[in-house]
Design a protein that fits this description.
The complex is a heterodimer of chains A (115) and B (124).
Chain A (H helix, E strand, L loop, with lengths): L1 H5 L4 H29 L5 H7 L3 H29 L3 H28 L1
Chain B lengths: L17 H32 L1 H12 L1 H28 L6 H26 L1
The chains are: A mainly alpha (115), B mainly alpha (124).
């Protein structure tokens, strides 16, 4: 019984958990970045570029983008499910949005790769 | 047997309670942020790929129009962040009663306005 309730095989509970874990990751990263901007009012290219050359920052940034992909997916999926009723249109929209988000993630990944 | 109940779905006459407004703002701001993802990646990519493109972004952001646009774009970010924290607090049963959720709905909007003003002061 407990296993059934807590099992993540339920789409809804899994989405709920994804949304919250990714939300916390996004919040920590973006508040950190806002703090960085406030502490560096006259940011130079060397400092800004240098920040993303550190391995820990690359990993944190990738985790941020991964969280954003997941978070946006759950959020937009919910919106599409609420407002787009015909199944075929909803399916096509969901697929397009999913691949657009995945493309954004790879885009960010390769930008980070080249730093 | 069909029961005919009166229905009122006119969006202009329905009175929305404040938590409902807080909720729809959370959805709208989230959708706006979703649309900004490619813009964000594009600008971020330009800012770290070379000194020239970094200068270009800095010049853009120093013009009043783009500065104002950036400030506008920050509003859904602040709102979604604060409203998200409100939801996480509700998950741990803080502020989920009617009175307290009304209060935190107003508080969310208040903090967003405050953060938007602070961001404006910082930008200008």
């Amino acid at each position: 019984m407990v296993k059934t309730v807590l099992s993540t095989s339920h789409q809804g509970l899994r989405d709920w958990l994804h949304q919250r874990v990714s939300a916390i990751a996004i919040a920590i990263y973006s508040i950190g970045l806002v703090g960085y901007f406030v502490l560096h009012p006259d940011l130079s290219y060397a400092e800004w570029h240098g920040l993303f050359t550190h391995l820990w920052m690359k990993i944190a940034t990738l985790l941020f983008f991964l969280s954003m992909l997941l978070h946006a997916w759950v959020g937009v999926w919910t919106i599409v499910t609420d407002y787009v009723k015909p199944y075929a249109i909803r399916l096509v929209l969901d697929i397009l949005i999913f691949f657009a988000l995945l493309a954004c993630f790879f885009w960010a990944f390769f930008i980070l790769w080249s730093v | 047997m069909t029961i005919h109940r009166p229905k009122n779905l006119n969006l202009f006459t329905i009175h929305f309670p404040i938590p409902a407004i807080a909720s729809i703002f959370h959805r709208v701001s989230g959708f706006a942020l979703f649309l900004f993802i490619p813009v964000l990646i594009w600008i971020w990519g330009l800012s770290i790929s070379s000194p020239d493109t970094f200068d270009l972004i800095q010049r853009w952001l120093s013009s009043p129009l783009w500065k104002f646009t950036l400030w506008l774009l920050l509003i859904p970010f602040w709102y979604h962040l604060v409203a998200g924290v409100r939801h996480l607090l509700m998950d741990v049963h803080i502020g989920e009663e009617l009175q307290s959720s009304r209060f935190t709905a107003w508080l969310t909007m208040g903090i967003t306005v405050l953060l938007a003003v602070l961001a404006g002061v910082w930008l200008w």
